[in-house]
């Protein structure tokens, strides 16, 4: 089903010569899901900003919440926002008029929104005022999250909300066929699949540090499993912990993403969140296998990063993860089943892990940021064509 949706929904943008493309145009990204310790969305935006500077003449500004108003155009601008209650990672930009004014003063030529919350509505208001195209990147599966928390009734309400919101955008990007299918089922038609990528020069098997285990006090002969990401409910950390307990002392589980380093169990170590991508690559490349029990991933960026580091991977058969992982690079297990996770890990270590790691690396190399952003620029170029302005006005009027 996912593959069929991909074939039907994916509208490949025209290839555009990058340096001869939309010179001097101003792309503005805005989202509330960006903080010093956030994950995939932050890495995507920072990687995009660096890539645009190196390869295009497009000006780029990222607008996000922060402790105070700060920043300059063509960089990162923060809008003073209070921290989200009970969740110190993110902030909520409650000064919506200020947010709209700052977006308008940037005089964007195209706006991309990275979350489906109230920031998206403010961006749409500015875009209508300036008659500029808008892109929504569906990084979060709001329908799936609502279903998990509130059941089918909540999922239906979220589906109606998403349909109403995304109807105002010129293009909705889905990072995977799984998300595209979800959006299609919600009645959203202006969808294209836009995968994320990985920096294959930073995330590489050569980043391996032979001294990592000694530094962490992990036995040299332990089979070292690793996971990196938020220590949140949807990542199913408790399933990883349960599997580590069942696997016993022959294995050690390294969790990356905590506030401080500590021992959670005799064979489980929690490490601090790694903001530096090179440091994250060093740790990943020094482990034996990557495991991911999350069942609501919309892409699985960290899985791709682990594969680029030459690690075989074991993931839950849920969300978009099976689109990245099959038996040639590792294995899958039944979601929310620690016993099946244990069986998948045992099977992995009975195979040629070096061969699996080589295939994983090759697959990651075909999913570089360069390939992803070249495709993304095609979407932007098409939307910013002057000939599309009339169509955009008709779409919004309708």
Average predicted local confidence, pLDDT: 91
Derived from helix and strand composition plus strand pairing, the structural class reads alpha/beta
Order of helices and strands: HEHEEHEHEHEHEHEHEEEHEHEEHHHH
First-last Cα distance: 31 Å
Number of domains: 2
Arrangement of strands in the largest sheet: 3-2-1-4-5-6-7
**Secondary structure tally: strands:** 14
- Per DSSP, the total helix count is 14
For this structure, the quaternary state is: single chain
- How much strand? 15-25%
Percentage of residues in helical conformation: 40-55%
Largest sheet: 7 strands, parallel
What is the third-level CATH name, the topology of the largest domain?
A: Rossmann fold
CATH homologous superfamily of the largest domain, by name?
Glycogen Phosphorylase B
Shape assignment: globular
CATH C-level name of the largest domain: Alpha Beta
Query: Can you name the CATH architecture of the largest domain?
Result: 3-Layer(aba) Sandwich
Instruction: Report the radius of gyration as a whole number of Å.
Output: 21 Å
| Uncertain regions spanning at least 5 consecutive residues | 1-21
Structure description:
The protein is an alpha/beta fold and 398 residues long. It has 2 domains: 2-197 and 369-397, Glycogen Phosphorylase B (Rossmann fold); 205-365, Rossmann fold (3-Layer(aba) Sandwich), CATH 3.40.50.2000. The chain is built from 14 helices and 14 strands. It has helices at 2-9, 40-55, 96-105, 118-130, 142-166, 177-185, 212-216, 237-247, 277-285, 301-308, 338-349, 353-365, 369-383, 389-397; strands at residues 26-30, 59-66, 76-80, 110-113, 134-137, 171-174, 191-193, 223-228, 251-258, 262-265, 268-272, 289-292, 313-316, 330-333. The strands form 2 sheets. Strands 3-2-1-4-5-6-7 form a 7-stranded parallel sheet, sandwiched between helices. A 7-stranded mixed sheet has the order 10-11-9-8-12-13-14, with helices on both faces. Strand 5 (134-137), helix 5 (142-166) and strand 6 form a beta-alpha-beta unit. Helix 3 (96-105) crosses helix 4 (118-130) and helix 10 packs across helix 12 (353-365). Mean pLDDT is 91; it is low at 1-21.
